[in-house]
Amino acid sequence: MAETRTPLVEMRSISIAFGGIKAVEEASVDLYPGEVVGLLGHNGAGKSTLIKILSGAYRADSGEIHVDGQKAEINSPRDAKALGIETIYQTLALADNVDAAANIFLGREKLTRWGTLDDAAMESETRKVMARLNPHFRRFNEPVSALSGGQRQSVAIGRAIHFNARVLIMDEPTAALGPAETAQVGELTKQLKAEGIGIFLISHDLHDVFDLADRIAVMKNGKVVGTAPIGAVTRDEVLGMIIGGKCPPGAIPGPGASL
Amino acid sequence: MELLRKLEIDARLIGMLSALAVIWLGFHILSQGAFLTPRNLWNLSVQTSAIAVMACGMVLVIVTRNIDLSVGSVLGFVGMAIGVFQARWLPELWGLENPLTAPTTLVFAMLCGGIIGLFHGVLIAYLAIPSFIVTLGGLLVWRGAAWWVTTGQTVAPMDGRFRAIGGGIEGAIGSTASWVIAASAILAIVMSMLARRRRRAEFGFSLRPAWAEALVIILAAASVVAVTLVVNAYPLPPGIARRLIEAQGLAWPQGGVHIAHGFAVPVLIAVLVGVVMTFVTKRLRFGRYVFSIGGNPDAASLSGIKTRAVTMQVFGLMGMLTGLAACITTARLNAATNSAGTLDELYVIAAAVIGGTSLAGGVGTIVGAMLGALIMQSLQSGMVLLGLDTPLQNIVVGIVLVAAIWLDGLYRRRIR
Questions:
Q1: In a 10 Å sphere around its CB, with 0-12 CB exposed, 13-18 middle and 19+ buried, how is residue B75 labelled?
Q2: Residue of A89, A97, A114, A145 to mutate when probing chain B, most B C-beta within 10 A
Q3: Are A109 and B283 in contact (CB < 8 Å)?
Q4: Which of B10, B64, B196, B292 should be substituted to probe chain A, the one whose Cβ sees the most A Cβ atoms within 10 Å?
Q5: Using CA atoms, how far apart are residues B378 and B27, in angstroms rounded to an integer?
Q6: Same domain, A75 and A1
């Protein structure tokens, strides 16, 4: 594959424990530009926790994160965003009481030269972003709580892609969506990938992952069972990895593989 | 409804104004025409100021899903502190009636209140103690501390210039100054609305029709003029007017002279606080963060907002405003007593909540809270005018509060 290139992101031997319980143990994953890596595993397998370390929501107890081959310190969501790492959370993480523009620019507001909020400029950019994601969207001056599930999803995606993300983390991006909206997210993923953005796709849904991912990484009990290019393993083998921790011959085994 | 939407006026605001109108007319009729007089309205506005100032801070506190039960006690403590500060310490430093006394006291009060508020904020934000508990503790601690400042002695009198902050004759700015302020206010309203319109036009957004814009401006200007007419219709008492005339070396005419009160200083302070706080909540990052924390604390912190620092600052701001309110109250009483501000926390919270601040967090406006304060004070002052006993007044205020929140809940569920 792309071993000669520098990975966009490399997480090395990441561990984190909550009150003595090891949520993630010695996990290593990497991601190349223009690549979609599907992160699979049961609930509680540690995939969301691992990814929250990358997005700055948690701090790892040990391990290193490298971005563009350089060691990176990610201690807060702000640090992650400064490195171009954006996240679409499963819960969407929207402030329901403010409008789409306020959410998209939350923490990165545009200011006028007097230091006040430039709402008109933010609304204008929001219109551009939303025109791309959800062309029929018109409710720019209503709180996000008044929007439909798909519209809220668009706002969350808009927030992630508006600031020239290089790495996008999508945590169960289609869990709350209908079929049409799911297809739309799939289209968008392909489009972003073509622009050279690296994407971590976390999902329960094997179908989604096989559709969109170039590579998969499977986690079980906080450890990586194995990673594999999508063509090298079958769905049944991946299920075996998720459920039994069995690493098939086509995959590169990780510390979590049962022998 | 269609008209309101065109005008972009909040239906809630109209509801509150109608409630206020009903209360005012009701009392006017019940008191046989004693309520809607310049004199009563002027006093009402002065009595509302301290609560209105604190209600502005309480909106932010409640919006961030917190509560502050300590404001009445903090007001009592800061009131005692500034009493001693200006009646005992400052005179030793630079003598009585020094022009610097009033401004120094004002700064000292806001500093005191701000530090107390920040201290509460640290306990709430960084030690994760629920705000209800921290400020319940504060309610007891600061009331006790207020007593300790002078072991219960009342401190009086206050500095003459300082008394102006509390209203009264010293704190009435007269008719010319009132008209100047009214004119500048109207100018500011027109300018800000035109600026907003120009900005939206630059980006090609939809604008409200010109006639609607004009109507809103006319309504706003008319209310400013009406209020100014009312305060200018309230004359100084003849004795004081006479002293003023004679001080200028003029003769006191036979029929007397109408010297108007004009706006009261505490009312101007409250309005200024309202304008500044509205600016803070709507136009500054800080305000945006406060509201997003109230809407979804997790989302705010995942967006890189330092939620704990913001929470701490909100309490600091609440404390500063309480310090300011302490000045107004102390100046109005012309004395610092350790019982000042008792039960104010409940009036302040009630004002914010009647004004549409949701206890669930994330929702509230400064204008609403100030109107809420006016409604609460109108009820109280109306009942005093009718000669109702204090226990009965409390019963009525309690019932009105509960009923108002019930109605508000109904309204919110309906528009959803």
A1: buried
A2: A97
A3: no
A4: B292
A5: 9
A6: yes
Strand, helix or coil at A61?
coil
User: Scanning the structure block, which residue is given the tokens 């400052």?
Assistant: B90
For residue B70, which of B324, B390, B348 has the smallest C-alpha distance? B348
What would the pLDDT profile of B137-154 be if each residue is shown by its tens digit?
999 999 999 999 999 999
Q: What are the phi and psi torsion angles at A39 (to 5°)? A: -110, 115
Residue A175 pLDDT > 90:
no
DSSP A146: G
Give yes or no: residues A170 and A74 share one domain: yes
DSSP assignment, residue B36? S
Per the structure, how many domains does chain A have? 2
Cis omega (within 30 of 0) for bond into B157? yes
Instruction: Please give the backbone phi and psi of residue A132, each rounded to the nearest 5 degrees, phi first.
Output: -75, -40
Q: What is the CATH number of the domain that holds A45?
A: 3.40.50.300
- Are residues A160 and A103 part of one domain? yes
Residue B104 has a CB neighbour count (10 Å cut-off) of: 20
pLDDT digits (tens, 9 = 90+) for A13-52: 999 999 888 999 999 999 999 999 999 988 888 898 999 9
Among A118, A134, A164, the domain-final residue is: A164
d(CA B104, CA A216): 68
Q: Which of A106, A109, A123 sits opposite B205 (nearest CB)?
A: A123
Q: Do A96 and B295 touch (CB under 8 A)?
A: yes
Which structural domain range is residue A126 located in? Answer: 87-164
Name the closest residue on chain B to residue A56, using Cα atoms: B302
Please choose, from the candidates B8, B139, B149, the residue with its C-alpha nearest in 3D space to the C-alpha of residue B72.
B139
Which residues 284-313 in chain B show a CB within 8 A of chain A? 284-285, 288, 291-292, 294-296, 298-305
Q: What is the pTM assigned to this prediction?
A: 0.92
Whole-angstrom Cα distance, residue B59 to residue B349?
A: 8
Strands A198-202 and A167-171: parallel
